[in-house]
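#struct-help
A.M.: can someone run this one for me? Single chain, 495 residues.
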Amino acid sequence: MQPNATHTFISAGIAALGCTFILIQYGYNRSLWLDESLLAVNLIQKDYRALLLPLDHNQVAPILFLWIERFFVQFFGPGEMSLRAFPVLCALLSIVLFWNVSRKIIPDDATRLLALALFVLSPSFVYFATEVKQYMADVLVLLAVYHALLSSFRYRMAVLSLLGVVSLFLSHAGVLILFTAAIYLLCESSGKHVPVRARYAVIPVFAIWLAGFTVCYVLFIDGHPHRGEMMNYWQQAFPPGNLISRDFVVWSLKKTIMLFTGILAFPEEYRLFIPFIGVYVAGVAHLVRTKKYALLFLLTFPVLLHAVIAYFRVYPFDHRLILYQLPLFVLTISIGFGTVKDALVHVTGLSRAPLLFLLPAGIYLFQILRDFPVEREEIKRSIRFMNESVAPVDAVYVYHGAAEAFRYYRETGRVAFGNPAVFGRRHDGYPEVFAADIAPFRGRTWVLFSHLNPFQTQAEASFILDYCSGRGVLLKSFETTGSAVYLFDLQTDKR
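D.P.: on it. Structure tokens below:
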């Protein structure tokens, strides 16, 4: 199906708007936050061979993603722009692939435009496009595999074979995506009118995928030393074992809300996301009613598969790890909106029902503009303040949530002072650990914070500041988004 010139022009404008938001966010060059800095320190300190081994700080990422990131660091320097270049490229390529995939799935021009707008203007998509993590590569892998699946070019099977191997080493979600693709290809090849030769064409593809997965599993998954730590960290991302328990129902409801308010970023205020759940169900119902079972499978099976393997504690079901399915949810919701629009026209004769499409796109645009460019933990500003005022005799205490970002910016020359820094420990239920860390300090002492959030770390920061205030006088302070720094004149600890 070929869109007309007007819709092509509008789609180009929507795509350009999405790219503009991404490039502005990229150029804004916000500070690395905690998770990014944990990975960034590995990338600037390790060569290609060292990246084959388990990473420091309990970090886990696909090897091909790490090598590509290392390439950018090696040739363009260790700055944030270099580290974020590959995720940005993945996002820009994803926009092109999404438009092509949507053309193969959605026949209606207006519905396709809605789908494109929801994808490129999604706050989650715009934000993670500039995150030093592999999540945007996950999105690119899904769209690349689906584009090949839904195409009919001559060397399709060869392309799928290559894509499969690359996917396994570029994305942790690649296994789930390929499992879905394998079932689709099996069903496709078993059709009544499929030539015998074409039925056997899937065998070498599956063999190559299996060989790639075996190598990936043996080298990078089996017996990984960080598995225990990761399983503990993602504890809430695994469903309760009893499928008929109240806990399982609560977990399922929470994850459903997560999908629509986290990944899809529909407003949680006043439960405004609930109508969009209904629209998603309408999209699924439309696919069932029109007997588009193959498409229904491609759009809905991955989330069910992910939930099943989470139940068996194989791979967590959580926001960032499920982000690769953003295109699938967007397409299904767009189909649902198209169904609602057609029903309004049919039942009420409402000629302006297509204007309904402006609602979700407008919500996304409002949410992006309300807080754009995004800031998270602007430790660079705190460090700049310190650079201007630190004296050679000053002591420096770095809160544990700021430690890796501070190390990264010291490695890259952003920290202009050479004062030794003492890195704070996690308290693990014993906040007096903070006081013990600071107790030896006397005189001018800088206390640097980052990774401040209202759930835990702001309370920890308050404990540290109360302790320091009880021992001395606050001389200077600077506070910014997610970060702060204070200069105290501390006296001897009288405890």
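A.M.: thanks! The CA atoms of residues 1 and 107 lie 7 Å apart.
D.P.: also worth noting: The chain has a mean pLDDT of 90.
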